[in-house]
């Protein structure tokens, strides 16, 4: 895949390893990273569980240190390996990577660590970058495109559902009233969303005959309109499926960080940099 | 878009601003209106929440006054700007607009304001008219058409579901009986709708073995038939998607209030009036 | 539609009225029948509600008598109007019609009327025959065909879901055990069906960590496989939509009771009888 | 179907009976087996129910013996009938068949029988092999293929849902906290899966306004993305539907156990063995 690797500087080789997954070492690196991320998430989850033996909490603490150190080195390496670091640092994954390393360092300054939990959970988003190593790359590209194509339509649809929920929630507030659990309009709207999306917790449920009748109507309508977004995605996906070639390489430009290059492309489609991919 | 605006009277210009969104002022007007409507809905919701500081209830009261005055002027402007006011007044949005301004005035005569809550919530429907300013116009037009095309079929389907629910509700009433929460046939039918639509509150749940067996059957059937409306919309939408050009302008005839004109149309397709759109 | 109606005997004319809906009187008859059936169902439902004024129970009792008498005459008329009565009597709707008239007569002999409730609810099925008067006839024909085409596949699918539920139900019975509400394997299977179909009553819910983990797996799998029947119906319906002419008449052969004749057909496609439809 | 059956050895004939379903005896064998498997599953389920008369437990015990003996003979026959027994023994169904016969024998050595329950429930999987006798064979082949084709995409999708659930679960843990039932992050993630898949038990439900707001967002998002796997399967299935011939025979090679032969094939597509199918 890279006959001319002797032309590459060590920076180029570092770039191939950590940004791409077409070489064996690049794959090993990605799998290691994947395992560490998953471990890290398991640590975050276990820390919140009460009543485990103290030894486990100690392991979680030291494990977090090891992962943080690895993430720190990886973050620095990513900045070094690219020619224009700002292109990486301010990209979506650049910010996620930074947030993945910070929590432990910040916990020295901030005592309430719970606020940092969600930040640590964001590490999981990094997994999506690594997915490119797998055979799922083509599938996920196509999926993302189908969702993007359907996005505007589904947003319009979800907005219409929300408007319907606000109107019906107000109606149910007037019918059922505060004594039956519909304490305010926001609560009623929450109930209406729970019902319309067919989640149906049952923490709030209509008890008056008229309320139950309206609720049944809302359910039947919700049952009918759940078909709409599905129909949209089906049609978009089917159309996309016919049109389409999907690229299967994981090339990332070492200058401007652009990805999604054509299979076999030699130069970056964005900045013209050599992709070292012959 | 409107080179000949010097030919337009002030009424025509007012019409462009409040009925259309192809000019900058028209867009500003629509965005202002959108913000006011959303604010108004937030006010309605917050008013129903108990236990907030008194200051907030005061702000809500004066905010409602400001919005009502704006809506009143807007309603009058809409009547003035159109050549045949009756076309607007008795249209769907004309009635919604009137209902949007009335509640506060009516509250002087009617003491129980709760009956006016739902009317105020209807204001939200006005948002759909404003959506034309956005890039979602094409999508929503296509969505509405797909739903209309599928409408008759989905109604037939929902009716069949309702018949099934009534029959199975009666059966469950006989099996489970009043001691297990199935107090009457209407309640049993309500339970059956809750189950069939996969909402599943759990406020009523079968407890006898036979009842649970029948309930499991109802669920599996419901799971199988949820596919039907989806299939219909998918097929309709896919067919519509192929056939289709959608108009992206927001022209409204200043004489007869007709919309949905062809892109670049100069005259109303309904009454022949000049659209002042050159 | 029927220029040669003077050739018709009174039996033929009766047949046109009660079996078909292409003539004005036929439509009036069908609408009357529709109203009576719906009324009858409302009566069945209200009878089961406790705590209403006694007057209402009296009205329900006499109303049931009126409806039963009408249904009795209608049943006799249907037998007279057809040349081969056995074709009607032993048809699906023939049996439903008989069951619709019997309950009140049987209640003289059988004291426990509750067993007859479900039979009375079956009257609702008669509505589907009357639907042919409406503009929905084409839609419902196409719907029924799409469901028939998908039937075998959806059955295979539902059977697979059932097998999965039995296996996972047994696993959950072993994990959660009787102390957490999973009292026996049938109950666990019932829980698994409730979960897999996303109904989720919450009357039984896993409480052990392992149980919750398995339950989460079951839900995610259920979420993924709900797509399968939908995809099937979508594809079948889309294929059917392209292929297809649907007949819009309501002709029924007065000899053999066959329906679904071609628009403009003069003779029964099954027995060759003249359809009197010129 | 088999004119040259006189060329066949008794082993070949045994093979036709127990591995295939194209001959009358093969069908009888398969139906017998189907009934025994279903009976066996009913026995497993009933055994777990408490409070039945002792006689029934006795019948279940002896019934289990009869079925085990039959399964034992069947397993031996299957090994004899095939030329390369290892091909059967280590195949998926070979292992399932072995597991179907063992539980009762093992219960002599192992006292806690509950661990063997799930193994006995696995017998149900054998039903899928027998389904080949039915007219559903074509359908299920096509179904399986559509699911296989969509598999990678749906896995990517389910993984994305899982990541979303972990992140939102962590957020809800911080918002709602332990006092509202969100005791740890794993529990919160479990709640998020229950909500996102629209199961909605209601054993854990948000009670703070912010928590309910986030929950409503999660539901609406879940409602929107349920469309994605459906769209995928629809498109794959529709594409598959057009492309395709499906084989309707149940031929299994007596040498290497390969199935899925072309209709009318004379020799095994895998090892070249004569299929004795002329």
From TrEMBL, chains A, B, C, D:
The keyword Acetylation does not apply. Gene3D superfamilies: 1.10.287.70, Voltage-gated potassium channels. Chain C. This is Ion transporter. Residues 27-242 form the Ion transport domain. InterPro entries: Ion_trans_dom, VG_K_chnl, Volt_channel_dom_sf. It is a multi-pass membrane protein. It is found in: Membrane. The chain crosses the membrane at residues 28-46, 58-76, 152-175, 213-235. It comes from Aquimarina gracilis. Keywords: Ion channel, Ion transport, Membrane, Potassium, Potassium channel, Potassium transport, Transmembrane, Transmembrane helix, Transport, Voltage-gated channel.
């Amino acid at each position: 895949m890279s006959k001319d690797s002797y032309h590459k500087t060590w920076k180029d080789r570092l770039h191939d390893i950590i940004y791409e997954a077409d070489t064996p070492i690049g794959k090993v690196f990605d799998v290691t990273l994947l395992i560490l991320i998953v471990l890290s998430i398991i640590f975050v989850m276990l820390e919140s569980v009460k009543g485990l033996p103290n030894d486990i909490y100690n392991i979680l603490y030291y494990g977090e240190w090891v992962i943080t150190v690895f993430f720190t080195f990886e973050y620095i390496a990513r900045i070094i390996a690219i020619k224009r670091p700002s292109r990486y640092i301010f990209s979506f994954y650049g910010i996620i990577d930074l947030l993945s390393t910070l929590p432990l360092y910040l916990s020295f300054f901030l005592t309430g660590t719970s606020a940092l939990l969600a930040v640590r959970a964001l590490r999981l988003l990094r997994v999506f970058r690594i997915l490119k190593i797998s055979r799922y790359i083509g599938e996920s590209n196509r999926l993302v495109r189908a969702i993007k194509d359907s996005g505007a339509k589904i947003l319009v649809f979800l907005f219409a559902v929300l408007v319907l929920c606000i109107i019906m929630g107000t109606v149910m507030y007037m019918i059922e009233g505060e004594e039956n659990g519909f304490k305010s309009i926001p609560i009623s709207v929450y109930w209406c969303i729970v019902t319309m999306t067919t989640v149906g917790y049952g923490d709030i449920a209509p008890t008056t005959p008229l309320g139950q009748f309206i609720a049944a109507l809302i359910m039947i309508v919700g049952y009918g309109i759940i078909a709409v977004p599905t129909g949209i995605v089906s049609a978009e996906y089917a159309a996309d499926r016919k049109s389409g070639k999907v690229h299967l390489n994981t090339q990332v430009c070492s200058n401007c960080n652009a990805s999604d290059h054509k299979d076999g492309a030699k130069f970056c489609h964005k900045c013209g940099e050599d992709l070292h991919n012959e």
